[in-house]
Amino acid sequence: GVRAAYAIAPAAGAQALQARIERLAPSWPVGAHGAALLASWTAPDTQDWLARSLDTLGHWKALQIEMLGGLGWHCMPSDANFFCARPPRPYGSFSSALRAQGIKLRDCASFGLPDLVRLGVLAPASQLALLKGLRPQ
Fold it and tell me: Whole-model pTM?
């Protein structure tokens, strides 16, 4: 994949920071595809789309958290497009059934959070699939 970055800095002192970053630049070869990605990413229409998508993601996240809460899950606060949640019963007791339906949740035990799973914010159709997978059969 492409690993590229750009820096945003205050005008005051930016020249010194720019010089430091440029000294590091040779270790960041991204090629033409990376340069094109960065140019696209910083374009005004792309930034407008990103701003609009935040509202959509926020709405989807609220729906997903409400859905999980209705099933007895405790969802942790998060500002990202993912969040951690504690299921009402140990994840290991139903993870195989979910996987059989193609649903995979990230067990947070390796993060030092053994009772939690991490969920990405899902589109409504995917939330319905998750709901179906979580409901007792």
Answer: 0.72
